[in-house]
Amino acid sequence: MFKIIQHKIFLLAFGTVISVSVQAQQNLKLIYDKPAENWNEALPIGNGKLGAMIFGGASQEHLQLNEETIWAGEPGNNVPKNTFDSIRKIRKLLNEGQFEQAQKLSNATYPRAAPKDLNYGMPYQTMGDLFLDFKGHENFKNYTRTLDIEKAVSSVSYEVNGVTFRREIFSSFADNVIMIKLSSGKKGSLNFSIHASTPHLKKSIFTEKNQLVINGTSSSSDNKIGKINFKTVAFPVLKGGKLTSIKDQLEISGADEVIIYISIATNFKKYNDISGNPDVRVSEYVQSALHKKYDAELKEHIEKYQKYFKRVELNLGTTEQTKKTTDIRIKEFGSSKDPDLVALYFQFGRYLLLSSSQQGTQPANLQGIWNDQLNPAWDSKYTVNINTEMNYWPAENTNLSEMHEPLFDMIQDLSVTGQESAKEMYHAKGWNMHHNTDLWRITGIVDGGFYGMWPMGGAWLTQHIWNHYLYTGDQQFLKKHYAALKGCALFYLDVLQQDPSKKYLVVSPSMSPENTYMKSVGITAGTTMDNQLVFDVFNNFINASKILNEDKGLSDEVKSALIKLPPMQIGQHTQLQEWLTDMDRTNDKHRHISHLYGLFPSGQISPFRNPDLTEAAKNSMTYRGDKSTGWSMGWKVNWWARLLDGNRAFKLISDQLTPAPMETKGQSGGTYPNLLDAHPPFQIDGNFGCTSGIAELLLQSYDGYIYILPALPDALPNGSVRGLKARGGFEIDMEWKNSRLKKLIVKSALGGNARIRVAKDIQFKSKTGLTSAKGENPNLYYQVNAIKKPLVSDKAELKGYSIPETQVFDFDTEKGQTYIFESK
What we know:
One of its GO terms (molecular function) is alpha-L-fucosidase activity. InterPro entries: 6-hairpin_glycosidase_sf (IPR008928), 6hp_glycosidase-like_sf (IPR012341), AFCA-like_C (IPR049053), Alpha-L-fucosidase (IPR016518), GH95_cat (IPR054363), GH95_N_dom (IPR027414), Glyco_hydro_b (IPR013780). By secondary structure, this protein is an alpha+beta fold. It has a domain at 29-73 and 126-310: Beta-galactosidase, Chain A, domain 5 (Distorted Sandwich). The chain is 29% helix and 23% strand. The chain has a 9-stranded antiparallel β-sheet with strand order 2-7-8-9-10-17-14-13-12, with helices on one face. Strands 3-4-5-6-11-16-15 form a 7-stranded antiparallel β-sheet. The longest helix has 22 residues, at 405-426. The protein is globular and about 80 Å long.
């Protein structure tokens, strides 16, 4: 039996903390018993701006270094000129059913390789590498290498000739520096040299004023000249011993303790301004850190990091596996019980987001901020037909809302640069972009007329603006970003075309990202994903204009277009159709299942509200299969959670927590020894996708309600979580035992109606304040945008979708109050 206790606790006013009787997760460290042999074993640290991969060698420490604005090229967009006539011809060919000819014309208009006067985006680039060489440390024992994600600190410890040597390394959240503290168990025993390298062609490495300096300029690529100038300094401070400067390295001998301050600065100020002074900046960064004692710097770093990280705790239970090193736990996950590794993986995703995306920095790119190459896979830029968006799926529901801000800043930039592509390529108002962008905020076609002919990037990115508003209720934020929502809606209002049947308005030309319906043909009109995206773009604008009391006339115009969008369709294989016509293949195993955007991250498909569409979506998932690239499996965890199949979602988590192959190509996915996701090669989106998916197993807030434990896997029967967020400003803590809810705490930041869905067998001892939910949720943050009734093929064989028995309750909340539901 359950009872409900209403605590009128004004958390903001009195700072009261509710004890949840949650056993805190004990293991928040990645642990290894040997140094990294390659980059995929090294450990990532970062503060949003500066990143490093730490190898932890005994005889040679190796830090591969990154700074978020070291990109090839220079300011400027990549919008092709004089292609609108081709766009119109492609539309005509598509309407006439001449699909191959349409694709050929698209490929000819936008070649696979960038024309001489154009570019397809610039690569994110490494700064280079810093090395610490320790002679005589080749024979070591009692080695331990860790990454403490509760403190954002990495450490190395080992013994040589009876002396213990220790290193502590972190990328400071307090200052723009990476700090390395070296110490030992015997005075005067620190003897090592510091040197560096960089792969950049324009470079200089030298010592001055007792510091090592690396100057360089980023690469030229396509039609752009490399104009990012950077300066890196490594400045050691000794306690005892002697520091000697040689031409391009520093020698340290007989020191008791050494602290090395590393900082990097560039001339980048904004996507259209590179007038910064890296010399001045890097000096300011180092001097600021030098004014603090090491312990004070470390303390401030941990406090600033934990302000966000410690908002959420997840305990899924521990087994003997926690005593093993992290690489072994990954290898054995499929054949052992290790629920704590799932919790660690969840928190590692949050650690990565905090480390790669801070207020005022660039957004996390394909590799976050960690990249060891000048020309990484897919340029390590921003791929917005899934990957960039997936990076930010955990931002709201895992209580890291502030880490979302760099993405919003980039959207603001793109809403300006994207006006050029909208006007030049489509003769349209508003703004748009295609499937890729970079530091310079390009919005034109990338990678040619097959992969690049997808004018929907802005449509997807702007969903994050609306989603942030739904979670926070921040009207000032909505007002600030309203122009981006409006401009996006204006673009689609202009470019929508009548389909051949004259029934619908569709986006043409476009594609279902990277997939084909005929051999080498993907270009089409009215894909299901496009229809779903425009549906959300239009509804977001309509709702925002109403909230802000803006543009009523335009809102009415958008409403008129909204009702002309095609409905979703269930095809001949009882699948959710990917295209406007029924061309899906049951043997299609493509990594993108873009037409399930409507299931997640959007909420247009709901098991309770749309069981037929849910069944069709499940069939599409089943046809595609499970094993795929890392990011694809991450998306599938979220989809199966929305399908309320926790066991299938957990299978995908298990597939993801499989050792990744060391090959750098393919679609086998998995996880590297350092817990980073493999496409392969490394892409960070799969980490973020799985973190989001684990949260979705425990809590979902869409379709008008907060669903508690909607898809709990059998493998996680006992556990607790604190601090997950739901839309409408609700924060949720819960405990469960034997797969049944034991305790629930709801904190209300905004007030308003809370509608909760729980399992049917949950009984409340007292229903004071609770009412059975009826009708639509009056809480505006839970408004459901009604979709059209789906069209169903005569050949489809719908069998009905089984959904769990649940009960739904409403209770009124007040701002700042906490409500506790508990069992006897």
